[in-house]
């Protein structure tokens, strides 16, 4: 979080210098808003060494939103059907490596805004990804396979990244 705050400070200072100092008067207010959002978020200011101590779910659909906080979700179900994941100003990982399904096609949307997302899929799935990148990266490291299940991942990475791997 500190990295993000200092990064935003430098961006505001740079933009202020570029546009003649008009943005400098908003920098202090912007910093206070960010600090306030961080304080009221459920994770407070504690260290993130617990980031990988996530949750396990047996839901068939995943619907997760993480704002200013970490997300680590492991899905274990025998009938996975897809879902939505949104990460804003944080880091998120969704592990699907142990799910099973009878569906031939599964749709999943993954969005990262000023954050980083990672999706782990089973090795026998075929993955088709379509992502919009705005000063970010949306990519798949999954080898092309001829699996019975096709995961259609669509989403966006805005000042962030989404990685799909197995």
Fold and architecture overview:
There is one protein chain. This protein has 2 domains: 2-40; 55-165, no CATH class. The chain has helices spanning 2-18, 24-40; strands spanning 55-57, 61-67, 71-75, 82-88, 91-95, 105-113, 116-120, 126-134, 137-140, 150-158, 161-165. The chain is 20% helix and 41% strand. With 166 residues, it is α/β, with parallel strands linked by helices. The model is unreliable at 43-52 (pLDDT under 50). The chain has 2 helices and 11 strands. It is elongated. A 6-stranded parallel sheet has the order 1-3-5-7-11-9, with no helix packed on it. A 5-stranded parallel sheet has the order 2-4-6-10-8, with no helix packed on it. Helix 1 (2-18) runs antiparallel to helix 2 (24-40).
Number of helices, counting only DSSP H or I runs of 4 residues or more? 2
Distance from N terminus to C terminus (CA atoms, Å) equals 28 Å
The average pLDDT is 79
Rg, rounded, reads 18 Å
Give the oligomeric state of the chains in this entry, treating copies of one chain as homo and distinct chains as hetero: single chain
What's the SSE pattern?
A: HHEEEEEEEEEEE
Q: List the uncertain runs.
A: 43-52
- Looking at the structure, what is the overall shape? elongated
Percentage of residues in helical conformation:
10-25%
